[in-house]
Amino acid sequence: MSGKTFTCTLEVRWGDSDRLGHVNNTRFVEYLQEGRVQFLNAAFGGPGVRGAAVVRKLTTDFLHPILDDSGPLTIELWITRIGNTSYGVRHVVTDRDGTVCADAEALMVAFDLDTSSSRPLDEHERGLLTQYLHAG
């Protein structure tokens, strides 16, 4: 099964570069978050309590430097697995030339804002996430 892939673009901002002249790895994580927020808003139909989730784990491979003139960046996202209370989100960041700069996976946990604890994914959420599920 190979579901949809969500794609968004982000600009490299002037203040994103460090003294070495490349985007610092902490900014990479911000790019991942910005892409993930856009993806989740699109998948769940906009921001709100439905679909609330927190990042439990983030694994990132930094593969190629991003420079001031590397943008616009393209971030492709899809779902790698759907569990009882969690799901995996894969992120691939490429620069304007198509070079893969980062490959990351976030383990997202469905979250109940009232109890500040994990909760099972409901059937509606599962259906929305399944549209982006890539097997293997």
Automatic annotation (TrEMBL):
It is an enzyme of class 3 (hydrolase). Coiled coil: none annotated. InterPro entries: 4-hydroxybenzoyl-CoA_TE, HotDog_dom_sf. GO terms for molecular function: hydrolase activity. Pfam families: 4HBT_2. Transmembrane segments: none annotated. Its EC number is 3.1.2.-. Keywords: Hydrolase. This is Acyl-CoA thioesterase. The lineage of its organism: Bacteria, Bacillati, Actinomycetota, Actinomycetes, Mycobacteriales.
